[in-house]
Amino acid sequence: MSASELTGREKAAILLIILGPEKSAQVFKHLKEEEIEALTLEIANITAVMPETKENVLDEFYQICLAQQYITEGGITYAKQILEQALGEARAYEVISKLTVSLQVRPFDFVRKADTSQILNFIQNEHPQTIALILSYLKPKKAAEVLSELTPDKQTDVARRIAIMDRTSPDVIKEVEKVLEKKLSAMLTEDYTTVGGVDSVVEILTSVDRSTEKHIMETLETEDSSLSEEIRKKMFVFEDMLTLDNRSIQIVLRQEIDSRDLAIALKGASQDMQNHIFANQSKRLAAMIKEDMDYMGPVRKSDVEEAQQKIVSIVRRLQETGEIFVSRGGGDDVIA
Hints:
mainly alpha
């Protein structure tokens, strides 16, 4: 079978075979579980690959990498011009077409490359709806950092707008980008782009500091109790570990958790929470943690929150891989 007759998945599998186990393993680290399963199955089904096919697949991959680099450096038009000179008009069009389908350059790319302080200076005087739209496109951690630095009244307003945001027209996004950045660097699909929503604001709120989270949730509870309840059901905080069964707690504790972090986290936890953790440790380890807690004396609230957040992050990671589940809001849902 020639390279032109291969599916995209088959080409990807052949490329991984060419790269070898070590490099392929590095690639797998950046793929979703279902993608890894599909490619592993595809590789298993390949019994032999002709040298010519290998060469064609590798050459196509190289051309796509070049095109992506050209797009990053100067945009689609620049990439098209360079590739036309190197490959000819027909082949350049084919490579660019594949990229525009698979490589969706997200809006506000120029904002994502800036640091938190630059973003804050850039957007803090913008309308809350504009801020909400931009934060929806940032990674949750960076969005959380920016949200934490906004004024308290604006924090709640922006969080509420992210939560109730559903779909935003590409024309609206383009218009906002033109105002905020003269050189538009994003490629948009013709479809409506889904951004924001309750899941989006939950991801952000679980990354902000505890005082910011508390302020936003308390204010939302007053202004929009139903929305507040919907968000709260999807939130997961350290004390929610009480809802985990013994097996799940034991899985969490088997992860790489620094014993000092665990001691600090439990220092600010309820007695029930402490008992729940100690009951799922060996007597020797539980005694060591208790001794550490007694020895360290008073601990700053910020240190307790930081240590608890590290453990919550582990719980969320285990949920994402399907290793643990938690009952929330009266149902058996996975942790949001």
